[in-house]
Amino acid sequence: MLPVRDALRALVLLAPLAALVPLSSSSAAPSGLAEAKAGTYSVDPLHSSAVFSIGHLGVSEFYGTFEEMAGSFELDPSDVTKSSIVMAIEPKSVHTRHPGRDAHVLNPDFLDAEAHPEMSFKSTRVARSETEGHLSVTGDMTLAGITKPITADVRFVGAAATMMGYRAGLVAEFDVDRFEFGMDALPEAAVGRTIHFVLSVEAALQDGDG
User: What CATH number corresponds to the domain at position 164?
Assistant: First the structure.
């Protein structure tokens, strides 16, 4: 069997297939980062996923999702340092398969969504990673009304001229310390301190670019 985190990654990448897409027209074979078209890409929320995990009672990891996101990224394969990304997630779109738990996640113990209706990330630095096809993206994460710098490992999945136009895909993974974002109402023995995020993003190259 796949380890839990690897199974999660597979689920994140397969979930967008459930959405309807045009069945006509052909698609080119996907290219790597170096061959991708430069330009501005707009995130397609119907084919993107936001998943988080957090420890529970020190014996398991619990997974949930956010259903609403938006964003864009500037891609310059010839000089990735000129690339950038901006993402926003709506906290109220959290889904943990239990309405009472959803409500708890949204209250002041955690996301405090009434006071802070948006989670966001804006990059400040993009660099190539030591891992082939990966980027190291540092930026400002705003969560529960607090902004802190984080660094995400971003894997470039591929880019191609598809039946839905020219598109590119990224998978970003990063951790946040909930205590640093003011979410310290519950002790670590009950709920883990580290929240792990996986964002799988499919984005369309904007008209006029590339």
Answer: 2.40.128.110
Q: CA 149 to CA 121: how far, in whole Å?
A: 9
The pTM of this model reads 0.85
27-46 per-position pLDDT tens digit: 667 789 999 999 999 999 99
What is the residue range of 50's domain?
A: 4-15+27-205
Q: What is the pLDDT of residues 162-172, one digit of tens each?
A: 999 999 999 99
Q: Which residues of 128-165 are buried (b: 16+ CB within 10 A; e: fewer)?
A: eeeeeebbbbebebbbbeeeeebebebbbbbbbbbeee
Helix (H) or strand (E) holding 118: none
Task: Dump the DSSP string for 147-204.
Answer: EEEEEEEEEEEEEEEEBTEEEEEEEEEEEEEGGGGT--SS-TTTEEEEEEEEEEEEEE
Domain count for the chain, please give it.
1
Answer yes or no: is 56 within a domain.
yes
Tokens of 24: 């006509």
Residues whose CB is less than 8 angstroms from the CB of residue 99 and which lie 6 or more positions away in sequence, other chains included: none
Interval 20-29 mean pLDDT: 55
